[in-house]
């Protein structure tokens, strides 16, 4: 099972990724999480990425493609993987094809911009695990603490309203074109053409989860 989760910032990719990776026993490869780990570790890549991420811009294709190529070559990806937040540009999608990083499904989670702004202002995350909460829509059992470890939850630096609006602009100008890209690719008569599916991303998280599982052939 090799899947791309496509959708605007805050569409629920990270939330649904938790369900999918558990059900199919595949690793979640989140380029955003990988970059935040590099920022936290203070590596040269992290220092460079932080400025770009805080401004709501995209990190260069070259860096991202290098990270993903290295990650999918690891042993735990043999039975599949879930790509969350990658690809995000046409050059990234082309690089996947050039490097034979194939996928079976491209799942687009569709949510309107105004809903996204409400969601991201209330988001809290557990950085070590990638678990995602919302102060109203999906609160932790104990306020401000991760359900499994009890460790503190944080608010991401790029979740301010101004940066979220900028991230949405970047999504519409650079990433949304991938919807058409994958619709066309899915119609190709080649064995590596993925199946493209669109799932409405508003409503209960478990209903959205069930719709995704159904789309993945469950
Ligand atoms: P990244 O970490 O990938 O962020 P993103 O794509 O902007 O997506 P988010 O993580 O913000 O949202 P999500 O869709 O996962 O939503 P979530 O499930 O958390 O990227 C961050 C930055 O890194 C980028 O801006 C860029 O700089 C860089 N980067 C990363 N990848 C890159 C790449 N490939 N190329 C270049 N640069 C890259 O949900 C959001 C909130 O809503 C949560 O609080 C959740 O609880 C709540 N929620 C979820 N579902 C529902 C629901 N159904 N109803 C109500 N609330 C819900």
TrEMBL record:
GO terms for cellular component: cytoplasm. Residues 122-159 are annotated as: LID. One of its GO terms (biological process) is AMP salvage. AMP binds at residues 31, 36, 57-59, 85-88, 92, 156, 167. GO terms for molecular function: AMP kinase activity; ATP binding. It comes from the Bacteria. Residues 30-59 are annotated as: NMP. Its main location: cytoplasm. Consists of three domains, a large central CORE domain and two small peripheral domains, NMPbind and LID, which undergo movements during catalysis. The LID domain closes over the site of phosphoryl transfer upon ATP binding. Assembling and dissambling the active center during each catalytic cycle provides an effective means to prevent ATP hydrolysis. This is Adenylate kinase.
């Amino acid at each position: 099972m090799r899947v791309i989760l496509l959708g605007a910032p805050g569409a629920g990719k990270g939330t649904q990724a938790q369900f999918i990776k558990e059900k199919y026993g595949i690793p979640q490869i989140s380029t955003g999480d990988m970059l935040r780990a590099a920022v936290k570790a203070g590596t040269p890549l992290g220092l460079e990425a932080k400025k770009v991420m805080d401004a709501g811009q995209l990190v260069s294709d070259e860096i991202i493609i290098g990270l993903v190529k290295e990650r999918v070559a690891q042993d735990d990806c043999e039975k599949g993987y879930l790509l969350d937040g990658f690809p995000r540009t046409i050059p990234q999608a082309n690089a996947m094809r050039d490097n034979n990083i194939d996928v079976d499904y491209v799942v687009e989670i569709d949510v309107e911009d105004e809903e996204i702004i409400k969601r991201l202002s209330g988001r809290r995350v557990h950085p070590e695990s990638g678990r995602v909460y919302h102060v109203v829509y999906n609160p932790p059992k104990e306020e401000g603490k991760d359900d499994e470890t009890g460790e503190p939850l944080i608010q991401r630096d790029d979740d301010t309203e101004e940066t979220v609006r900028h991230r949405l602009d970047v999504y519409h100008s650079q990433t949304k074109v991938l919807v058409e890209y994958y619709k066309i690719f899915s119609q190709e008569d080649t064995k590596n053409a993925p199946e493209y599916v669109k799932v409405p991303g508003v409503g209960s998280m478990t209903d959205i989860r069930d719709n995704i599982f159904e789309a993945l052939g469950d």
